[in-house]
Amino acid sequence: IKEIRMTESFTPVKQKPAKELRPMLGAILLGLILFIAAVVAWCYYTASLRKAERLKTELMDLRPEGFVIRNQNGEVVFRLAFRSGSLDLESCSKEGEILSCTRSDRGPLNFFIQTVKPKDTVMCYRVRWEEFAAGPAVEHTMFWEDAHWYGGSEMSTQHWPIRLAGYQEPVPYVTSDVYSFRDSFGGILERYWLSSKAAAIKINDSVPFHLGFNATERALFFQARYKDSPYKPPPGQQPFPELSYRVCVGSDVTSIHKYMVRRYFNKPSKIPSENSFRYPIWSTWALYKKDIEQDKVLDFAEKIKKYHFNCSHIEIDDMYMKAYGDFDFDPIKFPNATEMFTKLRNDGFKVTLWIHPFIHKDSSNFGVGIERQLFIKEPSGRLPAMVEWWNGIGAILDFTNPAARDWFQSHLRQLRHKYGISSFKFDAGETSYLPKLHESLVAPLLLELAGEVTDTGDPIIRPIWWISPRDEATHKIDSQFLIGDTLMVAPVLEMGKQERDVYLPMGKWRSYKGELFEKTPVLLTDYPVDLDEIAYFLWVS
Q1: 185 vs 155: CA distance, rounded Å
Q2: CA angle, 251 as apex, 149 and 203 as ends, to 5°?
Q3: pLDDT digits (tens, 9 = 90+) for 486-521
Q4: What GO biological process terms are annotated to this protein in UniProt (predicted)?
């Protein structure tokens, strides 16, 4: 009996510690796992630090998300972030002065930084990021930090140093008419920026370059892409975007700028006329605008002499031709242009002519341009792309075509030799005058309607009453028209006007400015239209 009692009393004592040990063992096991994970993480972290330390190159520190460059004093003078992806540092290696990586978080790539020290006081870095896929853009962000920055493009409102406002996603870095397109880039632009902290960056000319900015972050967005872009890859190459540039740092802003200019920019081959530095250029536009003729030009020169101003350059501006694109003087307005030029030269004047790349349909050269295929063409490649500029509608010479360049230059040489012209003023023709609206809105609609014409016989260009035949007001409208049933155009036809009346028939219409008109029919009186705009309305429902 005693043995049984001892056994009974002993058995619970064995079971109780086993139950209590289970959570204790679990906690120990969990702690061991966490300890191992911490050790692994620490080892990975220290290995990454050692890797990053090995990837340092002179004054640059490379990180997965970007890099910084310091000057000799250890101060950060340039900071850049990889906005479109992060580098996988495990794929990076360094041989000599070249640091290269083969992967990012988006996939394989070709990335390298080459260190170059051209002078004791200058350190440069050649950077290249190339994707192996056609779709994604490559984008890097350069931060202004607390430095002043200079360079870039001509803007409608020019600040010195650069001062930007708001936010702009990257757009093609191409020339435009800043008077008509206030937020665009002007006719002069360089892929070059200079910092007051003696850092400079030059984007390579081969890059399909787009520029944006964020004023809040004090940042510029440098982007390379071919998708939805005017840039095209070289013939025979895949549309893989590549962003490549050079960053140089020096001892001061002047010396680094001098180095960059001498290294990456061509020097002028000749010195312009001394008179153009010393004396004013007298333009007929300032006094006569388009109303010029031979007697007025000679009278203009006489007034300059009469009031004892310098007889330097006279620029004969707009409307000396009979039609835009003639490349010669209107024989009615200038009955003896040769005699006029002789008189001006004898009086000590050099003469400049205003030149542009537009050829109007009433010019004698319009047929020549079509026959020789000298013009930029619409998407089908069969017809010239007629574009609107500030003097009407015309074709524009395709200067990527060597034949067009030679033809244009030959006419300028003829003008120079015939009249003794000393120089030309090149104006207009920025990329903003390419047929953007026509390509994006009108051309697709025209192609769609053209496919329907063979079935329905309906005209492509239609009167307003076409969609509202019982509205008597539409019967009298002769200055608005439809393209198909959904696009209504209301051009301004009076010279100098910046408004017009627009009649909207029954339906819901959205203007090109984004305004929605639902209470129709309605007459919009004095509807504002800028000189560089064409009023149009899209039928919503």
Answers
A1: 6
A2: 45
A3: 999 999 988 878 889 999 999 999 998 889 999 999
A4: carbohydrate metabolic process; skeletal muscle fiber development
Among 237, 223, 245, which Cα is nearest to 173's? 223
Classify 387 in phi/psi space as left (phi over 0), alpha (psi -120 to 50) or beta: beta
- Is residue 188 within 8 Å of 96, Cβ to Cβ? no
Q: What is the DSSP string of 40-105?
A: HHHHHHHHHHHHHHHT-BTTEEEETTEEEEE-TTS-EEEEEEETT--B-GGG-EEETTEEEEEEET
CB atoms within 10 A of CB 198: 22
Cα separation, 356 vs 321, whole angstroms: 12
The C-alpha angle 231, 234, 236, rounded to 5 degrees, equals 135
- How many residues are recorded in the chain? 541
Segments in 161-224 forming alpha helices (H) = none
- Residue 339: φ, ψ to 5°: -65, -40
Q: Report which residue type is found at 450.
A: A
Beta strands in 370-436 (DSSP E): 387-389, 392-396, 423-426
Q: Is the peptide bond before 272 cis (omega within 30 degrees of 0)?
A: no
| ω into 521 cis (within 30 of 0) | yes
Looking at residue 52, its amino acid is A
Give helix then strand counts, H and E, for the chain: 10, 30
Task: Report the alpha-carbon distance of residue 393 to residue 467 in Å, rounded.
Answer: 28
Answer yes or no: are the C-beta atoms of 141 and 121 closer than 8 Å. no
Distance of alpha carbon 24 from alpha carbon 310, whole angstroms: 102
pLDDT tens digits for 409-450? 999 999 899 988 888 888 766 555 555 565 567 767 877 887
Could you tell me if 200 and 256 are in contact, meaning their C-beta atoms sit under 8 angstroms apart? yes
Asked if residues 59 and 249 have their Cβ atoms less than 8 Å apart, the reply is yes
Q: Can you tell me the distance from the alpha carbon of 46 to that of 388, in angstroms, rounded to the nearest whole number?
A: 63
Q: What gap in Å lies between CA 378 and CA 370, rounded to an integer?
A: 12
Q: How far apart are CA 493 and CA 503, in angstroms?
A: 15
Residue 413 to residues 14, 162, 339, 369, 418, Cα–Cα distance (Å): 112, 40, 19, 18, 8
In order of 360, 369, 449, 459, the CA distances from 377 in angstroms are 15, 11, 20, 24
Angle at 363 between CA 361 and CA 364, to 5 degrees: 120
